[in-house]
Amino acid sequence: MMIEGMLEEYLQSLQLASYSTHTIAAYKRDIQQWIDYTQLNQVNPLTTDKRDASFFLMDLARKGKDNSSIARKLSAIKNFFKFLQEREYITDNVFGLMHPPKRKGRLPQYLTHNQFSELVGLCTDNDFEGVRDRAILEVLYSTGCRAQELVDLNCREVKGRTEVLIRGKGNKSRVVFLVDIARRALERYYEKRRNIADPEEPALFLSSKGRRISRRSLYYLIRKYENKLSERTRLSVHLFRHTFATHLLDEGANLREVQDLLGHEQLSSTQIYTHVSVERLKSAYRDAHPHARRS
């Protein structure tokens, strides 16, 4: 069987394991990049050695890929080779011996309370798109959900206007909550939604044509408001997720609770947000302590 056929077989196995279409597409891109590299350099991708694998990672770095991106690609290819080994298409998983590059310890960016207030204040309250956009921003900040999770939301998954059932990665479900401001924004949106939605349409957030919004539409929505902010800030759906987690921890939430709300499998994925709070404490200490100011 050719390598392309093996890749399709692997992707089908991910689909059967309930991986999201977004995750499967990302795996396919990363693995295809390796296959393209081997074809360009006339290397057999199934009998490659550690030297070829190392050159591939070096080539990614030369092209400007950061360590986080390289580590993700390496993980995808490792899992693919593990699958090939289990199916006895290959005997050795050369990528299984390789370690990902160290990720730079960048702290996640987040919005201040004032920045978020300015942002939602930019949404108009007299037309469908403005009311919808305000509801989307409030739900993102109130729940910390991912982009695909928001796009996939259905009306029936909002329980009593206060709880939201999120279907996350690996088809795992969790319950998140709406604060009063988000709940009121969602109620105003429901009033506008009735005017354009088909009664049978399950999707919560719709385009002006009455269809479920896409990830691309969500991206352009965020970008539209980014350009209107008084202070230059790079906005993304993940920024709201970072803001959600940081503000919860700043207000005394338990790290395990925040882990559950974010849908993180590993606590280590959540712990980076505690570093943000520690940096803020250091700053407050330096600004307020007389001896710290003097030094």
Automatic annotation (TrEMBL):
Q: Which SUPFAM superfamilies match?
A: DNA breaking-rejoining enzymes
Task: Report the locations given in the UniProt record.
Answer: Cytoplasm
Primary subcellular site in the record, as a coarse category: cytoplasm
Core-binding (CB) domain mapped to chain residues = 1-85
A single GO cellular-component term from the record reads:
cytoplasm
GO aspect biological process, one term: chromosome segregation
Asked whether the keyword Transferase is assigned, the reply is no
MF terms from GO for this chain are:
DNA binding; tyrosine-based site-specific recombinase activity
Active site (record annotation): R146, K169, H238, R241, H264, Y273
Q: Which residues form the Tyr recombinase domain?
A: 106-286
User: What InterPro entries does the database record attribute to this sequence?
Assistant: CB (IPR044068), DNA_brk_join_enz (IPR011010), Integrase-like_cat_sf (IPR013762), Integrase_catalytic (IPR002104), Integrase_recombinase_N (IPR010998), Integrase_SAM-like_N (IPR004107), Tyrosine_recombinase_XerC/XerD (IPR023009), Tyrosine_recombinase_XerCD (IPR050090)
Cite the entry's keywords alphabetically.
Cell cycle, Cell division, Chromosome partition, Cytoplasm, DNA integration, DNA recombination, DNA-binding
Protein family membership: Belongs to the 'phage' integrase family. XerC subfamily.
Instruction: Please give the subunit comment from the record.
Output: Forms a cyclic heterotetrameric complex composed of two molecules of XerC and two molecules of XerD.
Function according to Swiss-Prot or TrEMBL: Site-specific tyrosine recombinase, which acts by catalyzing the cutting and rejoining of the recombining DNA molecules. The XerC-XerD complex is essential to convert dimers of the bacterial chromosome into monomers to permit their segregation at cell division. It also contributes to the segregational stability of plasmids.
Instruction: Tell me the NCBIfam families matching this sequence.
Output: recomb_XerA_Arch (NF040815)
Give the protein's recorded name. Answer: Tyrosine recombinase XerC
Q: Which gene encodes it?
A: xerC
